[in-house]
């Protein structure tokens, strides 16, 4: 069941290391290796932005410095996660081949500057990347120090150059075959947008077409496909040189520019960069959002470990307020990643640079250049602690609950006009359902419409506005076979090109599954309130008699479903706010509105207990969270974390054993910001 990400049998600890910035400082490079050892680091990501140092002139490679760095680190017990450098291209290339530079949505080509701004289509850029990746792979893919390929850096954004526009049109031709099909799928008769030639079709430029939502969606899909295709081309020479070295690319959590689930098969392991705003507001809430993001990233390859590829030891310099992490938060936040299924704690960055945009970004080593700092000591202590956690390596994080948060549905909701314009509220709705499950210690995946749902007992589908092909049937068969589905307002409205279903909502057979028929949705002004009056029934035991409602009230009529709560006021008084429908061997709950938070707590408490979803029957104090990783066939490691600054106690349901010390524990007392690993 265990699947290790790399050949290393320990959790990875290290980060982005940029020796190419320090080639004029050999004593610092020597010192780095010594300090890495002291900090308990065993893996560094090297060469991410090193193209200029690796190929200072076209076709002239300089690998000597990299050879030395990799060897020096290896001698000090540090493995290399080797990057392909496509995240930023060298000056000679921009000068000689301007087509490699990206054109922005304003139609202007970006000059040679910053990073992450290459064209995804340019044959020249692809060829140059192939050459450098081939050279790197031939030289290092069989070097035992190299354990993983870090492909590019945070793929993101889109290019609007003529090459990309032409590729987009080709992509559309392949998808639709004829303009007639495209025009229908995009409903272009509206505002006389009917495309009479493929050449008229352009991406949604800043001053371009954003009212044809099918176009906007297809553009986002094209950008994802083009990026994935670019990554595929990047990987080919790496795998050719040695198929056994795994590949990853570092993702960005809920970043919406790409559908990361399409990268599932390209990556041997998923990795991502984690930058929460600790100490801004309540850390206990930040911990929930951060866990949710870990869960989204892990769920691209459900059950498999992932890697936290970047995080910050202290102040993140690009945030509006570059606040220092308070003592203890570094360990807590780092171990949260491990608790949610990461096999690594990696940082951006190992050492603060002397110049440039990131010189004041948190790092393990600061400008003082020694290990004698608060931050270094915290990293060192964590490194020491991580050495005692080897049994977690490769252990899956298994979930019986899943929440659907489909990226394409996010795009579609964002593009459509209606509801609350500024933010339709999908992610807030997802979090409303996630938070109570998380607070009860229920392992939860965050999946997309293409994910396999068959292994879950509970699936939650908040605002499933767009039904991509197949999802309605999948939900139906999930419920038929005994699954419990919770679905909300504004679901089953459009198909995958954003055409509404005709003949009743929710469409594509979902009305029958839910046992309701939806007529309208009301968007409430911020100060508006309604309420749900809960009707007495076996299904509503444990719920309060009344819950406040805001934001949205969907108007629907029961068509087979049992009404569990009804609107209290306004012209919709008495209509369903919450229903349940029995279908096959399972059940579907439909929440027609946005309820106050306690509703979700009460509702899921009941559901979780009926379905027996808690891995451990334990009452968790406020701010103490529980995660479980399966470390052997029938042993779970329970990870308790305390996000309070004060100590907290947990009465355990049975005597447990510390994974780290082997000691028996009956009542767990966690210090403020403490973490315990129990068996
Ligand atoms: C990441 C990026 C790193 C570094 C870091 C700073 O998004 O991958 O290269 O810039 O942010 O927080």
Number of strands: 25
Under the CATH scheme, which architecture of the largest domain would be assigned?
Alpha-Beta Barrel
The count of domains is 3
Low-confidence stretches: none
* Mean residue pLDDT: 97
Structural class, from helix and strand content? alpha/beta
| Beta-strand fraction estimate | 15-25%
Distance between the termini: 18 Å
> What small ligands are held by the chains?
beta-D-galactopyranose
Radius of gyration, whole Å: 26 Å
CATH superfamily of the largest domain, please? Glycosidases
Helix content: 25-40%
Query: What's the quaternary structure here?
Result: single chain
Summed up, the helix count is 16
Name of the top-level CATH class of the largest domain: Alpha Beta
Major β-sheet annotation? 11 strands, mixed
The CATH topology of the largest domain: TIM Barrel
Overall spatial form: globular
General description of the model:
- 29% of the residues lie in helices and 20% in strands.
- Strands 10, 11, 12, 13, 14, 15, 16, 17, 18, 19 and 20 form an eleven-stranded mixed beta sheet that branches. Strands 5-4-3-2-1-9 form a six-stranded parallel beta sheet.
- Helix 9 packs across helix 13 and helix 13 packs across helix 16.
- Strand 12, helix 14 and strand 13 form a beta-alpha-beta unit.
- It is globular and about 75 Å long.
- The protein is of the alpha/beta class and 679 residues long.
- The protein folds into three domains: 321 residues, TIM Barrel, CATH 3.20.20; 211 residues, Class I glutamine amidotransferase (GATase) domain (Rossmann fold), CATH 3.40.50.880; 55 residues, Golgi alpha-mannosidase II (Immunoglobulin-like).
- Beta-D-galactopyranose binds next to loops.
């Amino acid at each position: 069941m265990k699947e290790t990400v790399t050949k290393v049998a320990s959790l990875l600890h290290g980060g982005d290391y940029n020796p190419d910035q320090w080639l004029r400082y050999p004593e610092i490079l020597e010192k780095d290796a010594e300090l890495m050892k002291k900090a308990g680091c065993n893996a560094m990501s090297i060469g991410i932005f090193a193209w200029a140092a690796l190929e200072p002139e076209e076709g002239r490679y300089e690998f000597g410095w990299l050879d030395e760095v990799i060897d020096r680190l290896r001698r000090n017990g540090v493995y290399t996660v080797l990057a392909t450098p496509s995240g930023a291209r060298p000056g000679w290339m921009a000068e000689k081949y301007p087509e490699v530079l990206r054109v922005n949505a304003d139609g202007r080509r970006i000059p040679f500057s910053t990073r992450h701004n290459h064209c995804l289509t340019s044959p020249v850029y692809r060829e140059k990347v192939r050459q450098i990746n081939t050279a790197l792979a031939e030289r290092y893919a069989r070097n035992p120090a190299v354990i993983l390929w870090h492909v590019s850096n945070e793929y993101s954004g889109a290019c609007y150059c003529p090459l990309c526009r032409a590729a987009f049109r080709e992509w559309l031709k392949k998808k639709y075959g004829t303009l007639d099909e495209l025009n229908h799928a995009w409903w272009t008769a509206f505002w006389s947008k009917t495309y009479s030639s493929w050449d008229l079709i352009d991406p949604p430029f800043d001053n371009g077409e954003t009212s044809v939502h099918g176009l906007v969606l297809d553009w986002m899909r094209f950008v994802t496909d083009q990026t994935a295709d670019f990554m595929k081309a990047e990987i080919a020479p790496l795998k050719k040189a040695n198929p056994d070295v795994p590949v990853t690319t570092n993702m960005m959590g809920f970043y919406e520019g790409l559908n990361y689930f399409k990268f599932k098969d390209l990556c041997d392991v998923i990795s991502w960069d984690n930058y929460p705003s600790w100490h801004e507001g309540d850390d206990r809430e930040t911990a929930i959002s951060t866990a949710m993001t870990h869960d989204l990233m892990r769920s691209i390859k459900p059950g498999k470990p992932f890697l936290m590829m970047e995080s910050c030891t202290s102040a993140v310099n690009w945030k509006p307020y570059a606040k220092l992490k308070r003592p203890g938060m570094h360990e807590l936040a780092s171990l949260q990643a491990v608790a949610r299924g990461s096999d690594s704690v990696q940082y951006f960055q190992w050492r603060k640079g002397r110049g440039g945009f990131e010189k004041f970004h948190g790092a393990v080593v600061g400008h003082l250049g020694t290990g004698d700092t608060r931050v270094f000591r915290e990293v060192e202590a964590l490194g020491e602690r991580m050495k005692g956690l080897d049994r977690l390596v490769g252990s899956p994080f298994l979930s019986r609950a899943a929440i659907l948060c489909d990226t394409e549905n996010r795009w579609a909701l964002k593009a459509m006009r209606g509801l609350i314009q500024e933010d339709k509220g999908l992610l807030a709705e997802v979090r409303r359902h996630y938070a109570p499950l998380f607070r009860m210690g229920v392992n939860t995946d965050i999946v997309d419409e293409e994910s396999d749902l068959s292994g879950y007992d509970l699936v939650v589908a908040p605002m499933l506005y767009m039904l991509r092909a197949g999802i309605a049937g999948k939900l139906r068969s999930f419920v038929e076979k005994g699954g419990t589905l919770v679905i909300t307002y504004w679901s089953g409205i459009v198909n995958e090109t954003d055409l509404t279903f005709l003949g009743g909502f929710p469409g594509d057979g979902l009305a029958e599954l839910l046992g309701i028929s939806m007529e309208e949705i009301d968007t409430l002004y911020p100060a508006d309130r309604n309420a749900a009056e809960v009707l007495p029934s076996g299904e509503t035991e444990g719920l309060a008699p009344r819950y406040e409602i805001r934001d949205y009230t969907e108007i629907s009529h029961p068509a087979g479903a049992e009404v569990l709560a009804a609107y209290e006021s306004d012209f919709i008084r008495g209509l369903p706010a919450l229903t349940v429908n029995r279908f096959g061997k399972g059940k579907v709950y439909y929440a027609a509105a946005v309820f106050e938070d306690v509703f979700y707590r009460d509702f899921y408490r009941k559901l979780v207990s009926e379905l027996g979803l808690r891995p451990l029957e334990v009452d968790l104090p406020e701010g103490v969270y529980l995660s479980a990783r399966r470390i052997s066939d029938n042993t779970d490691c329970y990870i308790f974390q305390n996000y309070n600054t004060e100590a907290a106690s947990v009465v355990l349901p049975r005597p447990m054993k510390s994974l780290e010390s082997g000691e028996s524990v009956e009542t767990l007392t966690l210090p403020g910001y403490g973490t315990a690993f129990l068996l």
